[in-house]
Amino acid sequence: MSSERDLTRVGAALAAPARSVFVNLLLDGTARPAGELGRAAGVRASTASEHLGVLMEAGLVTREKHGRYHYYSLAGPEVALALESLGPLADGVPVTSLRRSRQARRLAAARFCYDHLAGRLAVALADAWTHHGWLHERDVLAPTDAGVDGLCDLGVDVENAVRARRPTVRACLDWTERRPHLGGALGVAVALRFVETGWVVRHPSGRGVDVTPAGRDLLRRKWGILV
């Protein structure tokens, strides 16, 4: 088989505004019913199901049945990484309302990139941890011995991240900041710890996350990060 890849099917699957809305919503790692996705894109549930069929056929989305309903999610972290990496090449969605303006600011400040943190918060953490000697150079973001100790002290499950079947670390290019944040299994472990301790909370309306007062105190006190 040729090493070249035919990207036309994937490109065609993304070439509809409603399908773009769907994958953007699913980039937070959630599973959502067709009706919810359709309402977000302004299309009927039957039309949403047709669009989702196209995304499933292209291998971008999977479907699971829970009770009477089908829930759709991205096909995996590799799909999320590819979509996030396309961000710098894509046009921004026009901000036509105060609600969209607030949502855009929230996503730029802190959000989930499928299963790990992204936005200014994640880039600031990568910067601070590099500065404090917890991570190696920015193009690698691998933890140092001091970083392993520091992350373990925070309660991050570093051992499980190392044993995971996916890469332990990945420098994931942040599409809003145009700089890397920490991805991979270790990035997932960090995000899980930040959520379970209440340092950040998922915003109910989308991919954005809010930093709580406890989280702001931790960030300022330990690494001088102001959010």
UniProtKB/TrEMBL annotation:
Superkingdom per UniProt: Bacteria
Residue ranges annotated for the HTH arsR-type domain, each copy included: 1-94
Stretches assigned to coiled coil: none
CDD domains in the record: HTH_ARSR (cd00090)
InterPro entries on file: ArsR-like_HTH (IPR011991), HTH_ArsR_DNA-bd_dom (IPR001845), HTH_Metal-responsive_Reg (IPR052543), WH-like_DNA-bd_sf (IPR036388), WH_DNA-bd_sf (IPR036390)
SUPFAM superfamilies, alphabetized: Winged helix' DNA-binding domain
NCBIfam families: HTH_metalloreg (NF033788)
Protein name (record): Metalloregulator ArsR/SmtB family transcription factor
Phylogenetic placement of the source organism: Bacteria, Bacillati, Actinomycetota, Actinomycetes, Pseudonocardiales
